[in-house]
Amino acid sequence: MSSARPRIPRSVPAARRKRLTLAAPAALLAAALTACSGGAPGAGKADGKGEAPAAEVTVNLTGTSAPPGKPVTVTLARGKLRTVAVTADGGGALKGRISGDGRRWTSERVAAPGTAYTVEAKDADGGGDTAAFTTAEAAKVNKLSLAPGKNTTVGIAQPLSVVFDHPVKDKAAVEKALKVSTSNDTEGSWGWLQDYSGKDRVDWRPKEYWKPGTKVTLDARLNGVDSGADGGWFVRDYATAFTIGAAQVVEVDLDRHRLALRRDGERVLDVPMSAGTPGGEKASWRGTAVLMSKEGTINMRSETVGLGDAYDKMVDYSMRLTWSGMYAHAAPWNARYFGQANRSSGCVGMSDGDAAALYGQVRVGDPFEMTGSEAKGAVAEGNGYGAWNVSWADWSAKSALK
């Protein structure tokens, strides 16, 4: 027998006593997996003294400044791994799989920045040991905001929308980490665009409007993903979940100066309105806009949308349609034009009563389908949620994974 005294796990029979040593790949430690009385199954005798040949296990990440963003791999030189556990300091674990030959375990996700990990490996014969490493801190951290909010009920046109604090150069790596699940296998696609704020943004919209009752979840498994140059690392995961409400569509006819609300195909509201003055910047947008928020009574000032000092009013029943400042709202000062002409500064104005009726029935995510010749162009993708103004073929081509 060897003069060295191996550690003996209490649960391992005497005939299979051994130690499994985890070694760094850069400086492979002398390891043993030595055995008394015949050695490991299938192993020959190494030196005539009855010992099995040494076996070596390596972990690809080592030290106190290991590179983040890489899967953790644990490799066994001989025999087969039985279990591997990689646990982050403070809780959480990296799941992984053992290869078909039993000699390598690879984590499904990558190691996150600034995180201490403990690795515990056991082989098929019961030997085991632990190792530890810590990844380097992120020099820059990227964050994001999500819409819609968690546990909300939204309209049939609401996209999943993710806006990033910093630029995303490696769009494919980020998109791979965004997992969308629906209760009815809705077909959809991510599309990259520039938000109205100038930030990088990616939206997931279905091919057609959502079916009412659909349940949607987003699992953004971004912890440890590098967004690329100037963007920084993500250091946490994100998630949201929401439900699709009734099939409601608001129809805005700019030429007839009418607004109608349809629910499940039935018209439940039809009112006169006055939209933006045609022929210039005060004209309304056409195409499909999505109700972004119901903001109630707000102060609207024309200089905030580049129209000088044309107005400064407190406006009731305000429903935001674009970031550029197009709303549907009460506009009693414009009553003489309702149903007759478009004479607003770009918004869709109604009487107090009609605006209240619409405000009480619509929900965030409902589409406003605006048609007619008296418009200044279609709602852009990043100006609110304008993805519905892009064909399905063009939209799905905006995915970084196509």
Describe this entry's structure for a reader:
- The protein is mainly beta.
- The chain has three domains: 14-134, Immunoglobulin-like; 144-245, Sandwich (Immunoglobulin-like), CATH 2.60.40; 248-389, L,D-transpeptidase catalytic domain-like (Beta Barrel).
- 5% of the residues lie in helices and 37% in strands.
- The protein contains three helices and 27 strands.
- The chain has helices spanning 171-176, 352-361, 392-396; strands spanning 22-23, 57-59, 71-76, 81-88, 93-94, 96-98, 104-110, 116-123, 128-134, 144-147, 152-154, 160-164, 178-182, 188-194, 200-206, 215-220, 238-244, 248-253, 258-263, 266-272, 284-290, 293-301, 312-320, 327-330, 348-350, 367-371, 375-378.
- Strands 20-19-18-26-21-27 form a six-stranded mixed sheet, covered by helices on one side.
- The protein is elongated, with a radius of gyration of 31 Å.
